[in-house]
Amino acid sequence: MRVRTRGYWLYLVPSLLLFLVVIVVPFLMNVGASFTRWSGVGTPRWIGLDNYTRLLKDERFWQSFQHNVGLIVAMAIVPTAIGLVLAAALFDYIGKKFGSRTASALRAMYYLPQVLPVAVAGVVWGWMLHPSYGAINQIFGLDLDWLGDPDLALATVMAVMVWFQLGYPVVIFMAGLQRVDPAYYEAAEIDGASWWRRFWHITLPQIRPEVFVVLLTCTIAALKVFGPIFVLTRGGPGNATMVPSYFSYLNFFQKSNVGYGSAIATVLALIIIVVTFLFLRVQERER
Amino acid sequence: MMKTRAAAALAVAVLVLSACGSGGSDTPSAQSSSQPRTLKLWHYESADSAMGKAWTEAIKKFEASHPNVKVKFEAKGFEQIQKTASMVLNSDEAPDLMEYNKGNATAGLLSKQGLLTDLSEEAAKRGWDKLLPGGLQTTAKYDDRGVMGSGKWYGVPNYGEFVMVYYNKDLFDKHKVQVPTTFEQFTAAMDTFVKAGVTPIGTAGAEYPAQQIFYQLALTKAQKPWLDAFQSYKGKVDFHGPEFTYGADTFADWVKKGYIAKNSSGVKAEDMGVAFMNGKFPMMISGSWWYGRFASEIKKFEWDHFLFPGATMSPGSSGNLWVVPEKSENKDLAYDFIDITMSKDIQNLLGNSGGVPVAADPAAITDAKSKELIETFNKLTSQDGLAFYPDWPAPGYYDVLVAGIQNLINGSKAPSAVLDEIAKPYEDNLADIGN
């Protein structure tokens, strides 16, 4: 048996090579750079763990991780929860009542923000949220500085991210629901189960694998988030919306602190690896 | 075993990194003049700006005087060049000539890294040093530590820039406000606007404008030695001294009094400029880079400018620099091109397009608005009043100041806490200079 499967490894060589060249080598180079003092040009100077000890004491770095927790809520937990209800409603209620075309059209609308380039979406949101002439203040008759007030900025970015992410779980969950045996729903309906009960006892358990995948990918996306922060707030006002990836970028490109930027990137990568590992462990156990 | 492997991998990675040395290259021997050649040129000025117009003309002139040379111009973005210059210049993709930001944290850093060509000899030979008066030479020269003001020539500026108060004449007339000449008159004018329910100064906290107001306020209490200490590290800067304390306190006070809108902390520079062009604010404190655009786009009202009252110094400097990358293979052509941009007719065109030329013929500046601008600039340089910009002293200081001033606008931190916040990265950088 062993002898017979050995041949399969040959087919993995191209992707392994790619993985090595595109992921492993740059990652190791990044780890290497994190032990040096380097401006990105010239010879790096070995400084051991100095960047990491500095990182542990860096208030902005820890602050940026706190903001990341908020973004995990906005990009993973909230969209997953709303996405579940929406997907079930589209599949089980709208689809049946108004036809599958209506459900598909609505699904496409929810997914649209995922297709838009983040820069375009960010600029448009920036206009809508502008304190003087923004549509949001005009429509609701408010006078709020959504992205400029440190007490509001993170919540505003979170709200934009919910809008941004929502389509992704909806599409995945609707695809997952396609494989649920309709007989379950029919039987439950005959027994007089309400829509909520069907959702709770059939839909949720049946698409648990999809929920895991969405939570995992969205959590990773939230940990890595860069584009929306760059376009909307650049980490401001003050440091109210600073996130690790933007903080790393600032050190790389603004301050020419490539060593320190690499240390931040390394810590972020390790955290993502640990989170992924934990998710997979939990998922294994579920099975 | 795993540990050994990991350590080995790390060692390899570091070795690979170390191999990315700072390559310098010698200029190749001049190719024979009959062979077709290319001058690769990058800059980030928009085509309709004064510099854009002048340099487009310079390319035409250059190609006319160098029949066997084709100029390959690539328009770049300011941010794009700022963020990636050192990486690009260290690669084989470097251009022969490019526009780059002046200051210790930018051109100074690249010169220190050995990425820029020493232009001292050319500057003396071609007379560029005579065309640029003292204050404008500051940003062209950098010492071994990458600190501006002395040492070798690494860049050549073509134009000047400075921060002033733009004002809407119609709004001034409507509210019966005179152009202020003293600081007291200036605050009295702002009080008049506030009483009438008008926010007097349009600014932008998310980008450079607000920090330049803070710096301008500090400059009203500053003398030359303080400026030399802050910008060129020739002495110790006390962030809780009278200059910055006054700047931070007064700025916070201006927000409280409604001179600056409380909701301007998330506003970007472009929004500020557009709001002024739409007549929303009577005043805007910003740089001469807006001047040409205002001249061509403001049609609904009359506008003018004055220097910040009560200060002999204002933020300002030479414009950005022409730099010749060390890896350029056509340095001789790059020098010729810089020479053309310093010629009278290109400088006059720059001046007549709303820019501040450094070597124009005053009689040739016929555009009235441009004339006024150049006169103000000359007044400022004659009193040695170019105070550079607050974000220059340290790499990444721009973001530190943006964050600090946003805290002042929001009132989320007391002025003294903001000063602590901006002092630390400055002090950290002092320890780094020359490393």
UniProtKB/TrEMBL annotation, chain A:
Q: Which UniProt keywords apply?
A: Cell membrane, Membrane, Sugar transport, Transmembrane, Transmembrane helix, Transport
Q: Which residues cross the membrane?
A: 7-29, 69-94, 115-133, 153-177, 211-232, 258-280
Q: Which InterPro entries match?
A: ABC_transporter_permease, MetI-like, MetI-like_sf
Domain ABC transmembrane type-1 residue range list: 65-279
The organism's place on the tree of life at top rank? Bacteria
- Organism equals Nonomuraea angiospora
Write down what this protein is called. ABC-type sugar transport system permease subunit
The way it spans or sits in the membrane comes to:
Multi-pass membrane protein
UniProt-listed Pfam families: BPD_transp_1
UniProt keyword annotation of Transmembrane helix present:
yes
Q: Where in the cell is it found?
A: Cell membrane
Check the record and name the Gene3D superfamilies matching this protein.
MetI-like
Claim: Transmembrane is one of the keywords in the record:
yes
Q: What's the family?
A: Belongs to the binding-protein-dependent transport system permease family.
From TrEMBL, chain B:
Which residues belong to the signal peptide in this entry?
1-21
Q: Which UniProt keywords apply?
A: Signal
PROSITE patterns given for it?
A: PROKAR_LIPOPROTEIN
Q: Which residue ranges run through the membrane?
A: none
A Pfam family for this UniProt protein? SBP_bac_1
Please name the InterPro entries in this protein's record.
Bact_solute-bd_prot1, SBP
Q: What is this protein called?
A: Raffinose/stachyose/melibiose transport system substrate-binding protein
The organism is Nonomuraea angiospora
